[in-house]
Amino acid sequence: MKRQSRRPKIDPRVLNREEAAVYLGIGHTSLDGLVEEGIVNVIRYPGIRKDFFDRNELDGLIDRAKQSLKTLPTPLPTHGDKYGILRVARGGK
Prior knowledge:
The protein is mainly alpha-helical. It contains 4 helices and 2 strands, in the order E-H-H-E-H-H. The protein has one domain: Orthogonal Bundle (Multidrug-efflux Transporter Regulator, Chain: A, Domain 2), CATH 1.10.1660. It is 41% helix and 6% strand. The longest helix has 17 residues, at 55-71.
């Protein structure tokens, strides 16, 4: 009989690229674009070649987008903003 672990389940604060994209509901290519635009920061640990993302920062991005959409009467312009959220994520009106 195997002994069951009684460790508490912990939701990780740091997500890998695929997890972060799923968390945001976008593809990993779109996430890469948000990184390139400076909208989302990456975490890079010394000696590890993967990029990681802070769940709290992703939550903030989602919250800023929701708040801004409430105050905008029309859809965001997409010229010069291939993701359509650049102004929302940076807090622009």
